[in-house]
Amino acid sequence: xxxxxHANVKREMEVYGxxxxxxxxxxxxxxxxxxxxxTRKGRVEKIAGDPDCPxxxxxxxxxxxxxxxxxxHPDRLTHPVRRIGPKGSGRWERISWDQALDTIAERMLRYxxxxxxxxxxxGYGTGRENEAVIYRFANYLGTPNVxxxxxxxxxxxxxxxxxxxxxxxxxxxxxxxxxxxxWGNNLVISNPDCYKGEPFSVSLNRGxxxxxxxxxLTRIASRADIWLPLRPGTDAALAYGMLHVIVxxxxxxxxxxxxxxxxxxPFCRRVQAYPPEKVEEITWVPxxxxxxxxxxxxxxxxxxxxxxxxxxxxxxxADNDRLLMFLMGLTGNIDVPxxxxxxxxxxxxxxxxxxxxxxxxxxxxxxxxxxxxxRLAGNFAIINPKCVWDAILEEEPYPVxxxxxxxxxxxLTRANAREVYRALERVDxxxxxDFFITPTAEMADIVLPAATWLEMDYIGxxxxxxxYLLPRRKVIEVGECRSDHEMLNDLAHRVGxxxxxxxxxxxxxxxxxxxxxxxxQEFEQMDYVRGEVEYQKYKTRGFSTPTGKFELYxxxxxxxxxxxxxxxxxxxxxxxxxxELFKDYPYILITGxxxxxxxxxxxxxxxxxxxxxxxxxxxxxxxxxxxxxxxxGDWVTIESPRGRVRQRAWLFAGMDPRIVSAQHAxxxxxxxxxxxxxxxxxxxxxxxxxxxxxxxAMGATSVRTLLCRIAPEDGKGAS
Length: 719
What we know:
It is a single chain. The protein is of the alpha/beta class. It folds into 4 domains: 7-71, Single Sheet (N-terminal domain of TfIIb), CATH 2.20.25; 81-154 and 355-468 and 478-503, Rossmann fold (3-Layer(aba) Sandwich); 169-341, Dimethylsulfoxide Reductase, domain 2 (3-Layer(aba) Sandwich), CATH 3.40.228; 579-712, Barwin-like endoglucanases. The protein has 29 helices and 27 strands. The strands form 7 sheets. The chain has a 7-stranded mixed β-sheet, covered by helices on one side. A 6-stranded mixed beta barrel has the order 22-26-23-25-24-27. The chain has a 4-stranded parallel β-sheet with strand order 11-10-9-13. The longest helix has 19 residues, at 97-115. The radius of gyration is 25 Å and the shape is globular. It starts with 6 loop residues before the first helix and ends in a 7-residue tail after the last strand.
């Protein structure tokens, strides 16, 4: 391992009696932060940011700092269990790993023989950098059905960037953009995907201009030079309005357009439909502000867009992503220092190769649920969740008999939670791998104890596009917990896939690293490795698209029968699209704002993190609160046509009074009833998953923007 020679590290070890410090790589959220893990007598005593890590430079969020409280939590599942009695009974029996895996393997082989491999659905949620292993297992099993968050989280960015410019463009904070447009993202809170809040903040402190696109006055928006508080769900119209200004005022990079763009003429015709005055009517953003933002972004070089999942969890998902890439490309900020760079990964076997996607037979690929309906998603092995619930409940287009969820809690994270519950209740057999018995795990037949990042060796950031790889080094062992990688490697041998797997998972890490000519043992002695950095590669090699150019007019979408140019679609529920419904549900509800201590449904039992957010909260404008008779801290009901939940009122003047903002993914681990209060404050009891309200190409569920009404829980408020 790398020699830790920092004087302050040595001093802390001497003063506090730590006997070991391990340099590793956190995975409490989407990961990436280098950490120093201090131990005493084999137990983790402290976790701190690693100042030598090029990702976070010694900073660390509350989740990383509290990792040991998760690992050692008294309620943590530390051995496999089998359910006794009916689903949701809360009664469990301890079993061995052999019993658990033998049972799961027997069920898989039985369903594969009787109903076809497609009747088995693998699934993961936030992931623990386990997606490549899960896809490898599924593809060699023969099932095309892997249920992920990829239909409306990060997957759309990958899919649309491959269509547009060949790979995901990443903000080059190392070379400090002079203008940053943060669009539907709050990275100082969420630390999303390939990004951390620290380098963004450093670039701002060095003088970068800031444009914030967000319905809420976030910390970032409060610091912005221009804040564009758009009506929720109208991102595509706003992007088109900015592009209209850039095109008509000829603010685009003329050389880039002339030499490297495909579809300029049809795009220019489409953009004419979105003049700023029309876009103002749609978005609530004044036309002059749209012009100011477009001019600032186009004129300030280099510039970059910090984007996030909020633009993907809506009916305009794929087109939102594409339009933001158009803003990057047409202003000359693609693959330039300080702009949006198409970074290269080191020479490894990448996630796609490890996932063995090419080894899934074409006959099985054609059976992917929703593949014909959502062509872009199907092309990237992504499925819409409702397709799975329908296959369980209606047996259409065929029955799904088995679910295996790994690091996933769909009862809280997927739209139309009542339908999700019915499907989990109905499915023949379900296994779950997780840290705790979650509300989803309560519906399972077998639950496996998953290892945290502190309990495994792995190649950190294996799946990301920023070009770095970092060693994640095992520090502790807790009970019988095993990493998902080790578990699936073992299970694969039991279902006849042994020739495609390894005797132990360290050999798999060797296989990933083999193209670099190193082994895991050698890699874990390094601090990190990085792919070769080169800018404006397209000038000599073109883009990795069918035309070799930056595609405004997508040749692949055209081939699949989708609109090759982006368009704006009104949200499925809104004052415009459903005016009669709006009379009864007079507020626009947005969901999913991040809290520092939580990662979707996780960490609500971790003391340090729950103390930050003891209750679910809904932000309400003071004017709205007065109208509805709501006071700060009241429990209130939020209701949509599909259900009702309760959250505490948080009065917040930093948004339009017509908007209400509720937190997502709430359950209550401290409640000892089997469901842990999953139906009390779960905002997905209010959301819809109807196919017609999903993005037509990606299948993204519109969970961010809907209509609601709100009232004091005691019913004494006005109206």
